[in-house]
Amino acid sequence: MSVTANISPSKAVDRVAVRSWKLPILFGLLALFAVVVFVVLGPSGQATFRISQEGDAWQVPDLAVPAKVFGVVVAILCVLLAARAYQQMRNGGRIDNWVSMTFTVAFVVGLLVWIIGGTKTQNITLVGLFTGAMLITTPLVFGSLSGVLCERSGVVNIAIEGQLLAGAFTASLVSSITHNAYAGLFAAAVAGVLVSFLLAAFSIKYVVNQIIVGVVLNVLVSGLTGFLFEKIMKIKVDGATIYNQPAQLPDLPIPLLSQIPVIGPTLFRQSIIGYLMLVLVAGIWFGLFRTRWGLRIRAVGEHPKAADTVGINVNRTRFLNVLAGGAVAGVGGAYFTLVAVSSFSKDMTGGLGFIALAALIFGRWNPIGAALAALLFGVAGNLQSILSLAGTPIDGQFLAMLPYALTILAVSGFVGKSRAPAADGEPYIKG
Amino acid sequence: MKLELRGITKSFGALVANDHIDLVVESGEIHSLLGENGAGKSTLMNVLYGLHEPTAGEILIDDKPVKFSGPADAMAAGIGMVHQHFMLVPVFTVAENVALGGESTGFAGILDLEATRRKIREISSRFGFHVDPDALVEELPVGVQQRVEIIKALVRNARILILDEPTAVLTPRETDELMDIMGQLKAGGTSIVFISHKLREVKAISDTITVIRRGKVVGSADPSAATTELASMMVGRAVNLTLDKADATPGDETFKVTNLTVMNDAGQRLLDDVTFSVSDGEILAVAGVQGNGQTELTEAVLGLQKHVMGSIMLDGKELVGRSVRQVLDAGVGFVPEDRQDDGLVGEFSIAENLVLDLYTKEPYSRFGSMNRAVIARNAEEKVAEFDVRTQSAQDAADTLSGGNQQKVVLARELARPLKLFIAAQPTRGVDVGSIEFLHKRIVAERDAGTPVVIVSTELDEVLELGDRIAVLFAGRLMGIVPGKSSRELLGLMMAGLPADEARAQLDAPAAGTAGQSEGELP
């Protein structure tokens, strides 16, 4: 008997249009904004982008754009694309990716030119924009990688903020005592692991709600570091605080690569933490999608029972992943006190741990996606601080809000649906 | 490979799920475990597969005692299991699912999926499985997913294969194919433990049958034993397997569904242009394999679906676009398919569950405060009327057995004067004794002149209750046939053949082989 013809039809079910008008409406409003602001309120004169700096391997001339003309071009492009998006939604029920992408890029560049054209100096240094952005991006990447490790295995990590903060505090303390920044870096990883241990123990072993444990841990770490900051770090010996004077991690420029315009100073003139970041992004991506380790982690995060029935220890896998996530976030925290700023201050992470979660979702639980999202948030955040100094046509506080508004749009699914691991946040109880 | 269970006992707290079970599976035989839902079959197999540790007793393989601390040990000992709910990661490919847990790897743990793909292709061609190693599991039909599960076990060199209720999700045709596969595996020397509560299948395929009731082995039977004999062993008393039902006397067509289309958020048509009507005093049974639009149909009537087009008329009133409350008030009684999630509030008492839809109305509440005495009296009446086996009507609903929970749901829904009664999977997971009772109540509602719609994936139930039978496939209506139609006809329709084509195929002299029918699929 071999009558096993597959009669189960694998024919795809017909798709019909369930029209979602969110995007066409959004595009329409933005196009209107472009017409009014870029054209009618457009600044005269030029917006200049400085690309090269001294010491680069070769010099790229500054890019000067006539703001008004550029604004008109962008506005027309935006209107055309919005109309195209409307037409596509009407006919097919979906908008081509290129339309959305081109619209976004055109609008963002248009906005940038308009803002810079409107500043007093009418120029911006790209190197400054990106290197400054790294101050925000680096801890965000570490935070979101911690989230990737935890959530891919099925544990929601709201405690990233606490892990960053614990890392920042410990790095500063240990580096101050030992006068060795690398000892501080190591201690920060340990501190992150300790916070993670609490998260893992309560949420995996004792099946307490993961969100609640995470929130409590954030408050706990904030209180604890704040208390120790007052009691230890403010101790003065000979008129100087000795426990909050961490030795800093030196920049380690890579020869040749560091001299490429813009990219060099941004990526190849960093401390060890910066390089570690690049290695981790690539390494975790490869590990998750190309190795046995990653296959098992993803299985545990998607369908823990299936993993259990093929002999994978679900809760041990999750425990180890949460600990690894803690180490990664702890290192990210060390960046605050060993690279970015020269001492610890109370609650200095300022909510970046939560933005890291947003980057994680924006990046669709993918290490590379999360890193790019972190870069976007970093650039947006830094642009705001640069522009508020340069004197912009819009209020600085308003610009400061933009990255977060962007986050909400991203998280609420405007930029495509992102799908969390199916068992994310679900405790696994055997049997 | 010979497998023996000796005195296996498994208790969860006070509940004894398995009580000194002895079982011998000889090499190369198909051994059926027959028992009702909740008899302890699955628990026993989970013990055997290392998912539960037995409270007492031992497992012997080839007469040597073994101890499993987890599924990995069981697999290493040559035991493979196809679970009732598939243990497949939906977003993984077939190869990734098969590899999981026993991956071939190269340097530094880098996956070598090519080795797994080769093994899948080899097994697939040996048994004629037609499984593509690179297909995403969530995009495969359930029948193929089940084959992936079997491949998973075979790749791990399983010598004993446990199949836990494997036919529950299959069309009659796919069931036949599974039986063929089981025969091939047996010929190759694999022992099979086949768990089922479907008497016909058990009789057709088994070498030996062991019957389990309330956690105990009540005896073994020969496959040639009479169906009624097996049924009474399984239930513990004589059961009347056929329902005494008078012919329907249909009245006016008061429930009309016209061009009903339901879509999900992604725009897939889950229900596609379905038109039918039901008369007063008539039962329309909707058959089909799970996931072919039945859920959407019942939920669309109740107002639980988002993207609904077309018209649903009850007694001259349009139901599409109304709120659930309005639909209920229009006289619709609804038994949802998942009673534990949608039919009851488990922590609430039986009495409270009996007024879930009435608590806002007099006399159950006045001026926004509930009248406990009336609710309690109502509960006692209903418990007596529907023979709900419970200590007290104030006990939590989730302390009841499945059959008694379903009686509570039915008692609540039938309490109001109805213009339409819809029941989805009214007897899923319900013991045979309760099935009889529930069926009688449904027929009684019909005889009272209410149009009734029953959705069921069990062909037996459909044939028993339906005055007419509608078959859904991939969201489309394959046709409506009389209640006394043949299983073969319904089977073909459930596999996607419209009624007239299915009839033509059955009438054609050379028809009946799978090869021919494949070309005629829509």
Description:
The complex is a heterodimer of chains A (431) and B (522). Chain A has helices at 22-40, 67-92, 97-118, 126-152, 160-178, 181-205, 210-233, 263-267, 272-290, 292-302, 304-309, 314-340, 352-362, 367-390, 396-411; strands at residues 46-50, 63-66, 123-125, 236-237, 240-241. Chain A has 431 residues and is mostly helical. Chain A is globular. Chain A starts with 21 loop residues before the first helix and ends in a 20-residue tail after the last helix. By secondary structure, chain B is of the alpha/beta class. Chain B folds into three domains: 3-235, 3-Layer(aba) Sandwich (Rossmann fold); 241-331 and 417-522, Rossmann fold; 345-413, no CATH class. Helix content of chain B is 34%, strand content 25%. In chain B, helix 14 (402-413) packs parallel to helix 15 and helix 17 crosses helix 18 (499-507). The relative contact order of chain B is 0.10. Classes of the chains: A mainly alpha (431), B alpha/beta (522). The interface between A and B is large, with 40 and 69 residues.
Question: Could you give a quick summary of the protein structure above?
Answer:
The complex is a heterodimer of chains A (431) and B (522). Chain A is mainly alpha-helical and 431 residues long.
Features:
heterodimer; A: about 425 residues; mainly alpha; ABC transporter involved in vitamin B12 uptake, BtuC; 2 domains; three-stranded mixed sheet; 15 helices; 5 strands; about 65% helix; globular; disordered N terminus; B: about 525 residues; alpha/beta; Rossmann fold; six-stranded mixed sheet; 19 helices; 22 strands; about 35% helix; AAA+_ATPase (chain B); translocase (chain B); ATP binding (chain B); ATP-binding (chain B)
Write the layout of secondary structure elements.
The complex is a heterodimer of chains A (431) and B (522).
Chain A: H1 22-40, E1 46-50, E2 63-66, H2 67-92, H3 97-118, E3 123-125, H4 126-152, H5 160-178, H6 181-205, H7 210-233, E4 236-237, E5 240-241, H8 263-267, H9 272-290, H10 292-302, H11 304-309, H12 314-340, H13 352-362, H14 367-390, H15 396-411
Parallel strand pairs in A: 1-3
Antiparallel strand pairs in A: 1-2, 4-5
Chain B: E1 3-12, E2 15-25, E3 30-34, H1 41-48, E4 56-61, E5 64-66, H2 71-76, E6 79-82, H3 94-99, H4 113-127, H5 142-155, E7 160-164, H6 172-187, E8 191-196, H7 199-205, E9 208-213, E10 216-221, H8 227-235, E11 253-263, E12 269-279, E13 283-287, H9 294-302, E14 307-314, E15 317-318, H10 324-329, E16 332-335, H11 339-343, H12 350-353, E17 365-366, E18 369-370, H13 372-385, H14 402-413, E19 420-424, H15 432-447, E20 452-455, H16 459-465, E21 468-473, E22 476-482, H17 487-494, H18 499-507, H19 514-518
Parallel strand pairs in B: 3-8, 3-9, 6-7, 7-8, 13-20, 13-21, 16-19, 19-20
Antiparallel strand pairs in B: 1-2, 1-4, 4-5, 9-10, 11-12, 11-14, 14-15, 17-18, 21-22
Helix pairs in contact in B: 14-15, 17-18
Protein name (chain B): ABC transporter ATP-binding protein
Domain ABC transporter (chain B): 3-239, 255-499
GO molecular function (chain B): ATP binding; ATP hydrolysis activity
